[in-house]
């Protein structure tokens, strides 16, 4: 009798333990926002600032958080990491940010609205020690601007063109080219000869030839969205401007859209934004060919999302990663949208993110550091991405199993049932769009089918080398198959294989 009680008590303790582990994973859910910044540093997408005008009043956020993009995730179940307690930057929105600095891994934040007084024009965040600082910058300190985009070149120079002058009440939009050397911390100015007309909320991105392309936007004084039948190129090497006239399916004049460079460096993709009349989802995605400056509507697959404005977009791996913005309902659509842009013949809206995988070395060159007594290399816990399954609970399950054998059979069954449910839920999130319609998703084979080799910089491959090593063990991890993950593993294998081929051909092209 007392033995039975003891077992019951220990079981109860273990259940408490499990519950506690699950409770520790209560996800951080940020509020919807627009006019934030999204900065990618070391596989972390940092989100800072922004405001939400959806409910009538500007509900400005001081929170600061990031999304880990080193492992795969599903946009229906994002796990944000909250850094708000270390944030020193006052409430702000419509600021500009880049990754730069002497070690090329600091977040530089410039300007923004000044509804509340900000004590500095520039803030720097160092992800290494997670600290913020206010830098001392030499040269002529410029005025505060907002509603602009920051671009950094390959020499660590940040370009802050145009935007809205926050200080002089007689001036609204401007078109000056402000330059910040993020390595030596010096202000400068760029050429105004041939500069585009004044504007805010324009689109821009750095091209492979060191030009920055600028387009569209809003002209405050005229109260109108600017045309996209002309685009402007700022040559960062020679400090001069030129203009190109575009043709084809020219998008209507718009502002507050996002702009990224395609993976092959030959096209610019724009998404969302605002036009005089609201944009339709079919009118929200365009692509500009950089060879002949012809616009086209790219072929797309998957559920087209709501049109967003004043969001941000970063290219991460093979995806255009869109974050937050105004115009969607946070209860039905994820804060993150993923457009797989690896196949230029068909872009794919998807919920699944897989990190960029490099080529796998043909022969395993480096043996595992801690070889276990048994020959069979068992992957360490930390090498299993948490998105695949919860390693902690697996371990707890294993301990329970060995300790309580038969008594645990029913309990273990319950746990397996739970994780099966979880996988089923994942499946639902993947195949049902937000309006409850069934959509046909391609298999992951199709996701990564590419018709022409993509030129991915060798540096990117090297940088991501570790992920392949982290992911390979999963494919051989038999334990995971117990949790109904066969399909996922199959997918991962396909991706690893495909990426292996892809990267190999890239390297051949480069040599
Ligand atoms: C969401 O992700 C977390 C970890 O990232 C995981 O523990 C949880 O089971 C996932 N939930 C669903 C419904 O997939
Ligand atoms: C900083 O890193 C980026 C890649 O994230 C690279 O393109 C750029 O050239 C680097 N800048 C410097 C100054 O090394
Ligand atoms: C904020 O804007 C007001 C005008 O709206 C200006 O007087 C003030 O100097 C600005 N503050 C900063 C810190 O730029
Ligand atoms: C920009 O400067 C370079 C070097 O001086 C020159 O070759 C090029 O023609 C200039 N472009 C324009 C549009 O002036
Ligand atoms: C370890 O691996 C080697 C080579 O694969 C094999 O010959 C040997 O029998 C293995 N030892 C054990 C204990 O499995």
TrEMBL record:
Swiss-Prot/TrEMBL keywords: Kelch repeat, Membrane, Repeat, Signal, Transmembrane, Transmembrane helix
Segments of this protein annotated with the region Disordered: 364-389
Keyword Lipoprotein: no
Claim: Membrane is one of the keywords in the record: yes
InterPro entries (alphabetical): Kelch-typ_b-propeller (IPR015915)
Name this protein carries in UniProt: Galactose oxidase
Span of the signal peptide: 1-23
Spans traversing the lipid bilayer: 395-417
